[in-house]
Amino acid sequence: VSNVFLISARFTFGWYASRLFAIATSTILLAVLIQETVVLYGRIARSNAMLQREQKNKLLNLEVLASAIRHEVAQPLGALGLNAQTVELCLKQLPADLNCAREAAQDILTASHRVDEVLADVQGLFGKAKTTRFRSI
Hints:
This protein is mostly helical.
């Protein structure tokens, strides 16, 4: 708007001044916009780096959780298999050793309860609704 008042005639001081003023203001505006763009891209780059770091941390936490669950479940499952083999060996003996088979069967039942407890604890970590737990007969 102020450019219009400076222009009185072509090729006068006012005409050249208005042209220089227009170039200067557009250059300043361009520099400010470029600077603002650089700042915004820097913020986006930092945000993306933080997001990727957080995703890696969550993945590591999930890997640790999965490893802990596997460890807690693998122990009673190993005991189940070993005790099932013990029952089989006790029953193959002539005469069958029923006390040995009974003890191994009791150990199988205990290990199965332990697996159920571990799975219920895992379910509790995620806030699921209560379910009916395995009960011995």
